[in-house]
Write a structure and sequence with these properties.
Layout (H helix, E strand, L loop, with lengths): L1 E5 L2 E6 L2 E11 L2 E9 L8 H15 L3 E4 L2 H7 L10
Parallel strand pairs: 4-5
Antiparallel strand pairs: 1-2, 2-3, 3-4
C-alpha cells in the first residue's frame, strides 16, 4: 500500500487502485481533518488509522496541531499517543 499526497489530504492505493482517502484543511497552524473514507471492501483492516497516522506525521513535519472534525479521525486521535498533537 502507498500514500499519495494531494493538495488537501492523502489518497491510499493498493496495487494501483485507490482504496481510501483523508481530507484536511490548514489554517493558522491547525490541520482540520474533515473527512476520512475507506472503500467498503477494505473496512476493518486498520486503514483509517494508517491514514490518520499519515496526517499526524505530516503535522509533525510542519509543526501543525490537529483538530479532527471527522468522527472516525476523532475516535482514533482520542488515544493517548496522539494527545500532544491535538489543537
Amino acid at each position: 500500500m502507498e500514500f499519495k499526497e494531494i493538495i488537501k489530504g492523502f489518497e491510499l492505493f493498493d496495487s494501483g487502485d485507490k482504496i481510501g482517502y483523508i481530507e484536511f484543511s490548514e489554517r493558522d497552524g491547525v490541520l482540520k481533518i474533515t473527512h476520512t473514507d475507506v472503500h467498503k471492501e477494505h473496512i476493518g483492516k486498520g486503514l483509517g488509522k494508517k491514514m490518520v497516522q499519515a496526517v499526524v506525521e505530516h503535522a509533525k513535519k510542519h509543526n501543525f496541531k490537529i483538530k479532527p472534525l471527522c468522527a472516525a479521525a476523532a475516535q482514533i486521535l482520542r488515544k493517548e499517543e496522539f494527545a500532544g498533537m491535538l489543537a
